[in-house]
Amino acid sequence: MKTPMVKINKEDYGRSGQALLELAVFSTIFLMILTAVVAYGMRYSFNQRAQQLAFRRAMKIASDKNYGSGSYMLIQERHLPDFSDPFGIGSSMPFTASANIVRTYELDAQAETEDSLPANVIDIEAVSENGVMEPAVGLVLKSAAFRYENGLPDTEDDEDKPELIRKYDLIYDGVIDQNGGNYKIIDSCVAEMVDYSACYQQAMKIVDVETCTRHCRVSVTEDEDTNCSSICGQVMNPPNQNNRNYDPSRGGAWYAANYRVSGGVYTFPVLDEVFERIGSAGAKTMGLQFQTTVSESTRDTSIRKIETTQRIVTEERADWQDKTTRSLAILNNLNSQGEQINHDNPMAFADAVEVSDIESSATGRIRQTFTTPK
Amino acid sequence: MEMTAALVVLMMLLVGAARVFVWLNERIAYRQYHYEDTRVQAGSAPFTEYVVLSNQEHIRGLEVNESSNPPLNIFR
Fold first, then answer.
1. Are strands A91-102 and A119-127 parallel, antiparallel or unpaired?
2. What share of chain B is helix, strand, coil (3-state, %, to 5)?
3. Does B45 touch chain A (CB under 8 A)?
4. pLDDT (0 to 100) of residue A369
5. A52 vs B64: CB contact, 8 Å cut-off?
6. HSE toward the beta carbon, residue A280, CA cutoff 13 A
7. Omega within 30 of 0 (cis) for the link into A239
8. ∠ CA(B18), CA(B23), CA(B27), 5° rounding?
9. pLDDT tens-digit series, residues B15-51
10. pTM, rounded to two decimals
């Protein structure tokens, strides 16, 4: 007996699965949109949370009488799930917020002790199991420190300061007379966190009379007692406009030592060397070097299916970890009193640059069991 | 029949995603409300010497408590 034949025309192929195919294609796109919508919502929410926390913490620091100001940075390694990912694990992402607060009545306050020197507080927090944020790294980096200069004119009273000391006041903002021609200077270029541009500008004011005069004219009001050209024409401890060498016996701005001038452009080899020691190309500030962030992800997932005559049990297990390594560069040249450690050779200050790795890990786990009766 | 089922599933996904998105946005609004509400209290800390910068517990400011915010309910 012949098997009955069914004739299928070419146009009949695949027709019955068309809707299923459309669903498969369209739902993939739809799931991507869904992921994006949820991820956007989460990003804005996490961002707002980080900003609020950073501001409140900076305010808390500024509420301490010792500081009067607060500089705070918060990095939160948060987890963003992804529906298109197996197990929906997704990835972690840093949410960064920072805040600087100065109490208005503390604007003119001068640091007198190590405790009251301005500092940047950096906290890194990472998500742990069940979405709990755990502290991972806490850093306190001074943004100004003390150094000493001597052999300067003694100041009898504040109203009749010699013009040389007024030049120091103009450039450093914080100069404390220690009597006998010794001065304690609060210098932001000898601290743990140093900024290249700010120190370049400061070095320029020390060695170039014109730059100093321009700065003077926007900072103070000239009158019969204040002449910017005359103040800036004063010769500070070397390096200065006449002498390029650093004299360790008198103290001075070592970062301006051995400067060169070519076509009106100043080059400060010691300052350049300090930042070259950071090692990452083009690094212009100390602290966390975001351009050298390295992320390493590990995923450990499994599904176990147990089928009996009564039920099907599916066990899902996933452990994940996102390890982020950031580079931290500091100028580690302070003693316990927040004072600069002196060196005879200005290039030796560059040896104090320290670069280390800062690690933080965002982790999570999923344990799910589904039971389906047969 | 298949197309109808597909459309129903897609609509469910659409509504679910919209609910999650709205819930996340609501959280931002609630958080901002509580944050503004506690401004004076947060700024009225005593001006004394009590913060050790290396102590992470010391530098915690007045933080918004989010436990009273409405939970996610996509069937609402």
1. unpaired
2. 55, 0, 45
3. yes
4. 92
5. yes
6. 19
7. yes
8. 150
9. 887 888 888 888 899 999 999 999 988 888 777 767 8
10. 0.85
Q: Which of residues 94-123 of A touch B (CB under 8 A)?
A: 103, 119, 121, 123
Identify the pLDDT of residue A222.
85
| Burial (0-12, 13-18, 19+ Cβ within 10 Å), A230 | middle
Which residue from B minimizes the CA distance to A103?
B47
Nearest CA-CA distance, residue B26 and chain A, Å: 10
Q: Which residue of A has its CA nearest to B55?
A: A138
**Amino acid A9: pLDDT:** 62
Q: Cβ neighbours of residue A64 under 8 Å, at least 6 residues apart?
A: B47, B48, B49, B50, B51
Q: Which chain A residues are closer than 8 Å to B63 by Cβ?
A: 52-53, 56
Question: Does residue B3 contact residue A19 with C-beta atoms inside 8 Å?
Answer: yes
A56 → closest Cβ in B16, B48, B61: B61
Question: Using 50, 70 and 90 to split pLDDT, how confident is the model at B67?
Answer: confident
Q: Which of A271, A324, A331 is nearest to A141 (CA)?
A: A331
Amino acid occupying residue A21: L
Tell whether A66 lies on the interface with B, counting CB pairs under 8 A. yes
Q: Which residue's entry shows tokens 């999570």?
A: A364
Contact A38 B45 (CB under 8 A): no
Q: Is B31 on the interface with A (CB under 8 A)?
A: yes
Q: Do A30 and B31 touch (CB under 8 A)?
A: no
Rounded to the nearest angstrom, the minimum Cα separation between B24 and chain A is: 6
Tokens of B5: 């089922």
- Which residue in the set A22, A37, A57 is minimally distant from B60, CB to CB? A57
A67-106 tens-digit pLDDT: 878 899 999 999 888 877 778 888 889 999 999 998 877 7
Residue B17: its pLDDT value, please?
Answer: 79
Interval B1-22: pLDDT, tens: 777 877 788 788 788 878 888 8
d(CA A322, CA A297): 4
Residue of A nearest to B62 (CA): A56
C-alpha A219/C-alpha A22 separation (Å) is: 70
